[in-house]
Specification:
Layout lengths: L4 H14 L2 H17 L4 H11 L5 E5 L9 H4 L6 E7 L6 E2 L12 E6 L32 E5 L5 H11 L4 E7 L4 H8 L6 E7 L5 H6 L7 E4 L8 H22 L4 E6 L2 H7 L6 E5 H13 L2 H10 L4 E7 L10 E2 H9 L4 E6 L13 E3 L6 E2 L6 E7 L1
Parallel strand pairs: 5-6, 5-8, 6-7, 8-9, 9-10
Antiparallel strand pairs: 1-4, 2-3, 2-4, 11-16, 12-15, 13-14, 13-16
Helix pairs in contact: 2-10, 2-11
C-alpha cells in the first residue's frame, strides 16, 4: 500500500517525537531548511524566518472561552493585533485554515500570529470597518508550471526534491547541477518517483562561472544553492557557497534580470558576510534552526504546527496578487482584506508592497500581522499573505 508524502511525513514526525526532544530538534533542522528552500526566495522566507525567530511576530496558541460556539470565519476578525490562522483541539492535531463554518468547541485553542500574548486581547468586533464594495469576487485560480535550479547536493537534497515535486504544478522542471559523488545514483533513483516535475541532471561544479553562464540562470525564477555540509568542514563549505552566490549575483546584474536565490550558511558569521541588499536573496543559518528549536522546547505543539505547514496536502503560507482580493487604488482597512480572504476560505495575515521590495529599511515591503484597522491601498503588483490550501 502506497502512502502519500503527507502520510509519510506524519509517520516520520510521530516516530521522531517519540524519541524525545533531541531527536525532534534534529528532525526540525532538516524540515525547517526544506521548508525555507521550498519557499521560493525571500518572499515567503521572510515570513517563515520571522515566525521561527524571536524577532517580531510568532505563532501563539491561546485559549479563549468567549470564542466557544463561534464560527472560525467570525473569529478571524476577533482580534485587532493578532492574525488567527487555525484551531488546536485539546486532544487532536492542528487545524490550519479550517472551513469558515467550523465551530470553536469547548477546550479548543486558537492558533494565531501575534507579537506577544498581550496582543491576544479579545474584542467584541474589530474597530475597523469593512468596505464590502471593494472586495473582488473570487475566480478559479490557475497554476503555471515552475522552473527551479538546484546547485549542489547533500544528504538533505533527496527529501527536498521529493517535497518540491509535491508542491509544484504538473509540467514543472527541475535542473540539478552538482559534483557530489552520490548525486548521480540518488537522482536516478528519484526520477521515477516524480509526478509533477521532470528532473534534468548535469554533473558540474556550482562554483564554475562559465558553467553557470551557459545554464541561462535568469530563465529560472527560483535558484537554490545547497551547502556541501556533509563532506566539508563548515568554513570550506560556506566558502564554496559564497563563491556560487557571488557568481549568481553578477549574472543577475549582467542580465538586469533578478531571480530569487535561497542558500544555507553553516556559520552565522559567514551569513552576515554573504548578505546583500537584494530583495530576492535569502540565506539560511544554523542560528535560525536553533531559534526554532528553542520555541519548540518551550511549546512542543509548535512542532506539529510547522509540520502541518510542511505537508503539501495541508494549508500553507502563500503570497497572492492583492488585486484578486480587493480593488486597486482603493483606501480600505486591512480588515477588508481579511474578509475578502475569508470569502475564499483563506486567512489573510499580511501583505507585501511591491514598491518596497528592494528596501531593507521597510522590511523589503513585507508587513506581517498588521492591525485590522490599518489603512491599505494596494497596487497592481502588491500581494497578500494568506494561509490557504496550496
Amino acid at each position: 500500500m502506497k502512502h502519500s508524502l503527507g502520510q509519510r511525513l506524519r509517520y516520520r514526525f510521530d516516530s521522531t517525537l517519540a524519541h524525545g526532544p533531541a531527536a525532534l530538534v534534529a528532525w526540525l533542522a532538516i524540515a525547517t531548511i526544506t521548508l525555507i528552500l521550498l519557499a521560493f526566495g525571500l518572499d515567503l522566507s521572510l515570513v517563515y524566518s520571522e515566525l521561527m525567530s524571536f524577532e517580531g511576530n510568532e505563532i501563539h496558541i491561546y485559549e479563549e472561552s468567549a470564542l466557544i460556539g463561534r464560527a472560525f470565519g467570525d473569529v478571524l476578525l476577533a482580534y485587532e493585533d493578532a492574525a488567527v490562522i487555525g484551531i488546536l483541539p485539546r486532544n487532536g492535531h492542528p487545524l490550519l485554515n479550517p472551513p469558515p463554518a467550523t465551530v470553536i468547541a469547548p477546550d479548543d485553542r486558537v492558533i494565531a500570529i501575534a507579537q506577544n500574548d498581550a496582543a491576544l486581547h479579545l474584542r467584541t468586533r474589530s474597530a475597523a470597518a469593512i468596505r464590502a464594495t471593494a472586495i473582488v469576487p473570487a475566480t478559479p485560480a490557475t497554476h503555471a508550471p515552475e522552473r527551479t535550479l538546484i546547485l549542489g547536493w547533500n544528504r538533505q537534497a533527496p527529501t527536498m526534491v521529493c517535497q518540491l515535486d509535491a508542491y509544484v504544478p504538473s509540467g514543472s522542471t527541475l535542473t540539478i547541477i552538482a559534483d557530489h559523488a552520490r548525486a548521480s545514483d540518488e537522482i536516478a533513483a528519484l526520477t521515477p518517483q516524480m509526478r509533477n516535475q521532470q528532473i534534468r541532471y548535469e554533473p558540474g561544479d556550482p562554483t564554475d562561472y562559465v558553467l553557470l553562464n551557459r545554464l541561462d540562470v535568469p530563465s529560472y525564477p527560483h535558484v537554490v544553492v545547497l551547502c556541501a555540509s556533509d563532506r566539508l568542514d563548515p568554513q570550506r563549505a560556506d566558502s564554496l557557497t559564497l563563491v556560487t552566490l557571488l557568481h549568481l549575483r553578477q549574472i543577475a546584474d549582467t542580465h538586469s534580470h533578478p531571480f530569487s536565490i535561497v542558500s544555507k550558511m553553516m556559520d552565522v558569521r559567514n551569513r552576515t558576510l554573504a548578505e546583500s541588499a537584494r530583495a530576492d536573496d535569502f540565506i539560511v543559518s544554523e542560528r535560525l534552526i536553533s531559534q526554532l528549536a528553542v520555541q519548540v522546547a518551550e511549546n512542543t505543539a509548535l512542532a506539529e504546527i510547522f509540520h502541518t505547514l510542511l505537508d503539501p496536502a495541508g494549508a500553507k503560507i502563500l503570497l497572492k496578487p492583492a488585486c484578486m482580493y480587493v480593488g486597486e487604488g482603493v483606501d480600505l482597512s486591512f480588515a477588508t482584506v481579511v474578509e475578502a480572504a475569508r470569502r475564499r476560505d483563506e486567512c489573510a495575515v499580511g501583505f507585501r508592497i511591491h514598491g518596497h521590495e528592494a528596501d531593507r529599511a521597510h522590511g523589503y515591503g513585507m508587513v506581517l500581522n498588521p492591525p485590522k484597522s490599518r489603512s491599505v491601498c494596494v497596487g497592481r503588483e502588491d500581494r497578500v499573505i494568506v494561509v490557504a490550501k496550496g
